Amino acid sequence: MSVIEVLEVADASTKRQYIRFPWAIYKDYPRWVPPLLQDAAAVMSPASNPLLQTGPWRFLVALAAGRPVGRLLAGLDTKFNQAKGANDGYVSQFESVDVVAVAGALFDHASRFLAGAGAVRVKGPVSPTNGDEQRGVLVEGFEHMPALFQAYNPPYYPRLFEACGFQKLYDYFAFRTPLDSIPPPPEALEYAVARYGFRADPVDFKRLESEAQDIKQVLDASMPGEWPDLIPPTIEEILAMGRRLRGVGVPELTRIARAGGKPVGLSVALPDYNQVLKRMNGRLFPTGWITYLLGRRSIDTVVMFITFVVPEFHNKGVTQYLYYSTLREALRLGYTWGEGSTVLETNTTMIRQVRRLKGIHHKTYRVYCKHI
Questions:
Q1: Terminal Cα-to-Cα distance of the chain (whole angstroms)
Q2: Which terminus of the chain has fewer CB atoms gathered within 10 Å of its CB, N or C?
Q3: Fold topology of 4-171
Q4: pLDDT tens digits for 91-143?
Q5: Tell me: domain 178-366, CATH 3.40.630.30, correct?
Q6: Cα angle, residue 90 at apex, residues 152 and 69 outer, rounded to 5°
Q7: How far apart are alpha carbons 293 and 298 in whole angstroms?
Q8: What is the domain partition of the chain in residue ranges?
Q9: 348: cis peptide before it, omega within 30°?
């Protein structure tokens, strides 16, 4: 390969190269799901991407003989670092041809930028929006199409990370279960509902502002401080996500648990829209929206993203109730599969709950780290 040049995205031409490059990588990977081009562009805008509002960042494109051969997002999440007492930089949206020198050039450029901004370690891939999507490198389960928000990559990506000096930080697991195999709720769950007086109501997207306040109460109280990858979102981030989901969410699949009028739990699930996005090749227009409207009726999988319960309601059946009520409602609505995504490998409580619902571990995503 000729000399590799790494450019920071600074104009319309390099931005287009950055956005369009994945199509060159995945032309021979039929399970890849193209993102919507308008969403890919929105990720690059601080006005629409919460992650870019947390600290300095750079979008990078690697060129060889004038042609794109790789890309990378690198930055610092100063809010996260302050909350965790860390000095970490992050990388995201890594894509590269199968050449170690290309990956190395991207990571070296990112490391110099991050070290200059005060980072002593770099980790990733993280979510490019500070959300739940595209986290980690797929290391197991390449035969499966990614569900909504899941990462997908060629099998050689883990080798590129490791050849460039990265080591495993932690893994995420994804689980899949046929909804008609879920056992009926245990009698003890009915007893817990009666004893502790909770229920789970669908989120009312028409009352998003007030619902967001309840969601924030749950997340602030329930997100474990020892988790290495998450801190509670701001109310602005919750509202932004709510607006994003308002047009595509199924209210019955996103639920807030309450006891005595107080929010005590939250679960978020969505239809696996990747089954439709796969056919749209990144475009809503001129015909992509028709594909979406017609194709969403054939989606057979619901993806559960998060489940949180406030500490005082741990071990009182709320988590199980959210699982059962959501997945049984999904079965009633005509879905046949449930996907649990993505669960941190150290979250043994949730893994145990998923396995009780006949969940099968079928994908693994790895987050790497490297001292700089």
A1: 26
A2: N
A3: Aminopeptidase (3.40.630)
A4: 999 999 999 999 999 999 999 999 999 999 999 999 999 888 899 999 999 99
A5: yes
A6: 55
A7: 10
A8: 4-171, 178-366
A9: no
